[in-house]
Design a protein that fits this description.
The complex is a heterodimer of chains A (463) and B (351).
Chain A lengths: L1 H6 L3 H6 L13 H12 L12 H12 L28 H26 L13 H30 L8 H26 L5 H7 L3 H4 L6 H16 L4 H8 L9 H7 L7 H5 L4 H17 L4 H9 L10 H9 L2 H7 L4 H17 L4 H5 L6 H40 L1 E3 L8 H6 L16 H13 L1
Helix pairs in contact in A: 6-11, 6-20, 7-8, 7-12, 8-16, 10-14, 10-17, 10-18, 11-12, 14-15, 16-18, 17-18, 17-20
Chain B lengths: L5 E3 L10 E6 L5 E6 L3 E8 L2 E9 L4 E6 L5 E6 L3 E6 L5 E6 L4 E7 L4 E6 L3 E6 L7 E4 L4 E6 L3 E6 L3 E6 H10 L8 E3 L5 E4 L6 E6 L5 E6 L3 E6 L4 H5 L2 E4 L2 E4 L2 E4 L2 E6 L6 E5 L4 E5 L4 E5 L7 E6 L5 E6 L16 E6 L12
Parallel strand pairs in B: 13-17
Antiparallel strand pairs in B: 1-31, 2-3, 3-4, 4-5, 6-7, 7-8, 8-9, 10-11, 11-12, 12-13, 14-15, 15-16, 16-18, 19-20, 20-21, 21-22, 23-24, 25-26, 26-27, 27-28, 29-30, 30-31
Classes of the chains: A mainly alpha (463), B mainly beta (351).
Chain lengths: 463, 351
């Protein structure tokens, strides 16, 4: 504790340190300051006697050595004057004290900031917020995000290959959220519209929240919904991979997610039955839709439709924030899509893709558009590749950025040095000699010993 | 600081352009100053006053000057490639040899009556002044930048951070044996006693030998001074060190000045360094301490010399050449003589 404090003294400690008026150096205690002043500023050059003040030194010089003192030795240019009588911390003009404290403060905050940047830790208590660490964090998260996404995708791909057709991946998350959600869902009719109103926000909700709640606010989306259901069968394949999800889900943003798979797998009967019923797209979808559609009229019942659907546990996972929605929706969807040649499917696809994209890349509308045009069959691969590539890029870039920052730090260090003269082979004199005004003109002046000179000249030049 | 401890050569007696070298006479307090204004100045320094005795015109800027066998003989060299002897009483000059590029450094060994000149043509010229001998030339691997002598050794600092240490006795032998050819100059080949690479990373600026013949100090353009010992044993070599100096922090940027001049105090064995920042500091090479640092001089310190008795320190201030400038920097030309107190340049208790 004590040591720590010594390493990073707080502002008051710094302000309390005695310091020398003449050279602005600070000291551990007043005694040392006084002996410093006697040794550096008040010492007689003639006899080495150390006086207590500049005035004392002046008198000494005058009386003993018959000399006059004009300035204080080793002092800063502006502090050489003899007008101020300084002893230790006594006698320092107030404005100088204030200026000193100000610089100490600035230095202190600068130190804190530098330390925060250097260590990556948030600035210590009481310090100014460091800007340095703030940008760093989001970056890291993004990278993690990407990796997660990559893993998810791989899992999904695996699922695709294994394609046996089983319960819907989608559902899981929903289930999970449900318990907690239901109250929220209750509000949903009211709550959603605002949420849904932005074009973007709305879609995600759809996916994740097949429950009628959504439908009511935004009937327009119902078609997508049905598509969604269609796609669901494939999603079910997603199940095996879903365990993967669970860990991934450990995201901060999706607290509700993690538990869901567990429930789903373990206690929830839905998993197994669901898949079976679904693959035949017709029947399952029908009921679902119906229930779903029924939802709105039922007024809320988000929970209830789900219950129907699942055959029990409500699965309106709709995590509280949009992120999770997107994720849930997006993940399961892609694997299913290619297989179902339903006309609507492509549409859904692109949508989901967008979502995925959205989730993966820093949310930005333009990015989401990119994938729309892709043929559905190509999706898996292309998307997979894209994402893995992106992940790789992200890793690399994070690596390089860290490298860069290291380099930068080094460079900064170097940059902070300015050489007045820097040349490896040509001395300053040589450069001066090259100046026109020093150009040597042999005839300019005849020298007394002209003969000897010429002899020597020709001799060397000839040789 | 008491103002009386330091005085300037009166302004009307100052060189008109940058100063390249200052040298005290071996037996008196006469001072030679070489300048880019094509003159060598001779001053008489007494306590508190510096008086111009004479000045000697050259046909080109003078890069170095030194005293010869007595206080009335001097040598100079400069941009006209010549090495000259100047009779300080009559003002007569004669050319001893001519390099194939400007000659920039001179040292004179009194014991061997040998004048050694260095040049940017990567040669040393040896002028044996005892007899009627033709000068001898020795090729160096790079341009010579600085020379320094001890009674037994010659240290040559060159470009590319090379540094050669020659034994004077060997050189002298070679020179005396080489006078066979009839050309204007003899060429000799001599292996240095030691070849070293500078312990500093940047161009060597100056080198100066300890008066006790134990080692030397060298400085670079990058605000650093290294102290090394001649003795090649590991123990002695382990003692060498370098330190930073002549730097200023301006707005968080470390501004690094070249260390243009080094001079050892003939009595105390401490040494002074003068930098492009206009600061002169006195160091104790053994105790590794700075003894004192003087107030900033009005311009870059171009040259330094202690008087033979160690009572005076001559500081040549003139604008220095800086990176990124077409011409010399700002600053006035002046020669400041510092009268040293008894213990002013003495090392700490070590002595």
């Amino acid at each position: 504790m004590v040591k720590k404090k010594r390493n990073h003294p707080d502002l008051q400690d710094k302000l309390d340190r005695p310091w020398c008026y003449y050279c602005e150096r600070d000291f551990d205690d007043l005694k040392i300051l006084i002996s410093h002043q006697k040794a550096k500023h008040f010492k007689c050059e003639r006899c080495g006697r150390r006086l207590n003040t500049a005035g004392g030194l002046a008198v000494h010089l005058n009386q003993v050595h018959k000399e006059t003192l004009t300035s204080v030795e080793n002092a800063l240019p502006t502090r050489q004057g003899l007008e101020v009588e300084i002893f230790g911390m006594e006698g320092i003009p107030e404005e100088v004290v204030n200026a000193h404290q100000l610089t100490v403060q600035q230095q202190h905050y600068a130190d804190i900031q530098n330390r925060a940047v250097a260590t990556g830790n948030p600035p210590g208590g009481g310090g100014v917020q460091s800007n340095g660490s703030a940008p760093k964090k989001p970056k890291i998260e993004a990278a993690a995000d990407l990796k997660k996404r990559l893993a998810e995708f791989k899992a999904r791909k695996a699922a695709l290959e294994a394609r046996g057709g089983t319960s819907s991946g989608d559902v899981t998350p929903m289930d999970a959220g449900q318990g907690t959600q239901s109250p929220a869902v209750g509000h949903s009719p009211a709550g959603f519209p605002p949420a849904g109103s932005p074009p973007y926000g709305a879609p995600p909700q759809h996916f994740s929240g097949p429950p009628g709640a959504q439908a009511s606010p935004q009937p327009a989306y119902s078609p997508p919904f049905s598509q969604h259901q269609f796609s669901q069968p494939p999603l079910q394949h997603g199940f095996p991979p879903q365990p993967h999800y669970a860990p991934q889900v450990s995201f901060p943003p999706q607290p509700g997610y993690a538990p869901s798979p567990v429930q789903h797998f373990g206690g929830n009967p839905y998993g197994p039955p669901g898949p079976q019923s679904f693959p035949p797209s017709g029947p399952p979808s029908g009921p679902y839709q119906q229930q779903y559609q029924g939802g709105p009229p039922r007024q809320f019942g988000a929970a209830s439709p789900m219950t129907d659907f699942n055959g029990g546990p409500p699965r309106y996972a709709s995590p509280t924030n949009g992120m999770s929605h997107q994720r849930q929706g997006s993940l399961p969807a892609p694997p299913g899509l290619p297989q179902k040649p339903v006309s609507n499917v492509p549409h859904v696809n692109s949508y989901q893709l967008q979502q995925m994209h959205q989730g993966q890349a820093p949310p930005g509308a333009p990015g989401q558009q990119e994938l729309k045009g892709l043929p559905s069959s190509a999706f898996d691969e292309s998307v997979d590749e894209l994402i893995s590539a992106a992940a790789r890029n992200a890793e690399e870039s994070s690596k390089t950025t860290s490298l860069n920052t290291e380099k930068k730090a080094k460079k900064d260090k170097e940059k902070n040095i300015k050489l007045i003269y820097n040349d490896e082979t040509v001395s300053p004199e040589e450069k001066m000699a090259a100046l026109p005004r020093y150009a040597f003109v042999p005839d300019h002046k005849e020298v007394i010993m002209q003969d000897a000179l010429e002899g020597a000249l020709t001799g060397t030049v000839g040789a | 600081m008491s103002s009386s401890a330091q005085f300037e050569i009166p302004e009307n007696q100052n060189p008109a352009d940058a100063i390249s070298s200052v040298k005290f006479a071996p037996h008196s307090n006469k001072l030679l100053v070489a300048s880019w204004d094509k003159h060598v100045y001779l001053y008489e320094i007494t306590s508190g006053i510096g008086t111009l005795i004479n000045k000697f015109e050259h046909r080109a800027p003078v890069l170095d000057v030194c005293f010869g066998k007595d206080d009335d003989e001097a040598f100079s060299c400069g941009l006209d490639w010549d090495v000259r002897r100047i009779d300080l009483t009559t003002g007569a000059q004669n050319v001893l040899s001519t390099h194939s590029a400007p000659a920039n450094r001179l040292v004179y060994s009194n014991t061997l009556s040998l004048l050694i000149s260095a040049s940017w043509d990567s040669t040393l010229h040896f002028h044996s002044l005892s007899g009627d001998q033709i000068p001898a030339s020795l090729a160096l691997p790079s341009k010579a930048f600085s020379l320094s002598l001890t009674p037994t050794k010659l240290v040559v600092a060159m470009a590319s951070r090379a540094l050669h240490i020659y034994e004077l006795s060997n050189l002298h032998l070679l020179i005396s044996e080489s006078s066979a050819t009839d050309s204007a100059i003899n060429t000799i080949e001599a292996e240095p006693w030691q070849r070293r690479e500078s312990s500093l990373k940047y161009m060597t600026r100056a080198v100066a030998c300890m008066p006790n013949d134990a080692g030397y100090a060298s400085s670079s353009i990058e605000g650093r001074v290294a102290v090394e010992w001649f003795d090649p044993s590991n123990d002695s070599q382990a003692r060498k060190y370098a330190f930073k100096c002549h730097r200023q922090t301006v707005d968080g940027v470390d501004v690094v000045y070249p260390v243009n001049a080094l001079a050892f105090h003939p009595v105390h064995g401490t040494f002074a360094s003068g930098g492009g920042d206009g600061i002169v500091a006195i160091w104790d090479a053994v105790a590794k301490r700075r003894i004192r640092q003087y107030h900033k001089f009005p311009a870059s310190v171009a040259a330094l010399d202690f008087s033979t008795d160690g009572k005076f320190l001559a500081v040549a201030c003139s604008p220095g050449f800086e990176d990124g400038k077409e011409d010399l920097g700002e600053g006035s030309v002046s020669v400041v003589i510092r009268e040293l107190g008894e213990v002013e340049a003495k090392g700490k208790a070590a002595k």
